Amino acid sequence: MEREIRPYQSEDYDKLKSWLSELGRFYDGHEAGRFIDQLVNKEQEDEFGYFTTAKEVYVVSEGGQELESIVLNYKRGGSVKVGPFVVDPDARGKGLGTYLLQFAEERAREKGRRKIYATTSHLNEPVNKVFTKCGFKVEAQFPDQYKKGSVELIWGKVLLQPEAAAEFTEITTTIESNAAEFKVQPYSPAFYTGFRELILNKLPMWHDEINDEFVLRTIIGHLQGVDFEKKGKVILVANSGNEVLGCSIVVPKRGGPAKLYPVLGTESAQAELIQQSNKLARHIGSHKVYTFAPIEDRKQQQVLESMGFTQRGVIAEPYKPRRDLTCYDKFL
Ligand SMILES: CC(C)(COP(=O)(O)OP(=O)(O)OC[C@H]1O[C@@H](n2cnc3c(N)ncnc32)[C@H](O)[C@@H]1OP(=O)(O)O)[C@@H](O)C(=O)NCCC(=O)NCCS
User: Fold this and answer.
1) Nearest Cα residue to atom 43 of ligand 1
2) Which residues form the N-acetyltransferase domain (predicted)?
3) What single DSSP character describes residue 203?
């Protein structure tokens, strides 16, 4: 029988929804209906995502029978995140999952992507076998991330090795300022210029494709409040009058954790922003926060460690060639 891989069509909706309902085993607060709406309604563009720029959903069928599906999320800076992918329960254990992940990798290579990655629960043995078989490595492990008792594994595979002999450049999330006092407040338009400048000056050191559109998407996310289905986020700004001394972005995630990323600014502003971000995350019911710091930026890592964050691994060049990020989390 002929096997076909094609883009998602609206007729696939019910099938995908029933397949995806199973993921509740690994993710607290998982609702297949809302999840699939978010996945497929904006197939080409993730409206409120700030690092995702496009999505592709594929379905595999054989003899007119749908067998499996996979989602590819294209990220700023050259990587592709796989997820979720699912095989019809009656068709498992016959190599279909492996076939589809290999297809995803080929597609990523075709598109010139440097890296492919995914996250899975350590309890999900079949999917972890598939990633191992396809040559992925576990780069980091976040305990109790999306469900108590479940360790979330971050799997990565670098597809294009960077050319050797790159010039080493220092990276720091820190800026200098003479202002002694500052306040931390939610973003408002008065901070636009300083916020934009901070993002555009700093983030490109370890993130490619950071531009005005990224800044705008971040701000739109802030306006969505704290609904994770709408990619809501909260931007906190450390400021002295209109001078922006730092910013942090808090993103609530399915299953309860909050992503705190990025954190930029003077050293004291960063410490206060992390403190306030933790408070905010606790306030919205998050049980933990997680973040990423450039591996070269020891200063930010020291700030995080002094505030009780734990290192959970290093992800290889997710957003820019040769720029690895250290993963941290903290239980609230
Ligand atoms: C994960 C999934 C996509 C794998 O699909 P599949 O078609 O069965 O994959 P494959 O047949 O290529 O490989 C599955 C591997 O897991 C193994 N496996 C199956 N059930 C298992 C179990 N309960 N415990 C351990 N290993 C198991 C199979 O033996 C096979 O390994 P092998 O090739 O070494 O024998 C499928 O199980 C699924 O849809 N799960 C539900 C959705 C999900 O959890 N998706 C991942 C989250 S993003």
Assistant:
1) 86
2) 3-160
3) G
What residues pair up with 259 in beta bridges, in sequence order?
251, 290
| Ligand 1 atom with least separation from CA of 96 | 7
Is any atom of ligand 1 closer than 6 Å to the C-beta of 132?
A: no
pLDDT digits (tens, 9 = 90+) for 188-246: 999 999 999 999 999 999 999 999 999 999 999 898 877 766 668 999 999 998 899 99
| Rounded average pLDDT over 45-72 | 86
**Residue type (1 letter), 307:** M
Token pair recorded at residue 206: 């370890």
Instruction: Count CB neighbours of 62 within 10 A.
Output: 14
Probe target for ligand 1 pocket from 26, 71, 87, with the most ligand atoms within 8 Å of CB? 87
pLDDT tens by residue, 3-25: 999 999 999 999 998 998 888 88
Burial string for 95-110 (b: 16+ CB within 10 Å, else e) reads ebbebbbebbbebbee
Q: Is the pLDDT of residue 255 over 60?
A: yes
Residue 44: the pLDDT is 44
Question: Closest residue (by CA) to atom 24 of ligand 1?
Answer: 125
Residue nearest to ligand 1 atom 30, measured at CA: 93
Does 123 contact ligand 1 (Cβ within 6 A)? no
Neighbours of 52 (CB within 10 A): 19
Q: What is the mean pLDDT of the chain?
A: 91
- For residue 97, the CA-to-ligand 1 centroid distance in Å is 7
- From 83, 85, 80, select the one nearest 116 (Cα to Cα): 80
Report whether residue 70 contacts ligand 1, using a CB cutoff of 6 Å: no
Is the minimum distance from the CB of 22 to ligand 1 under 6 angstroms?
yes
Q: Of ligand 1's atoms, which has the minimum distance to the CA of residue 94?
A: 11
Angle in degrees, CA 42, 289, 199, rounded to 5: 65
Q: What is the mean pLDDT of residues 93-107?
A: 97
Write down all domains in the chain, each with its CATH number in brackets: 3-158 (3.40.630.30), 183-331 (3.40.630.30)
HSE (side-chain half, CA atoms, 13 Å) at 142: 27
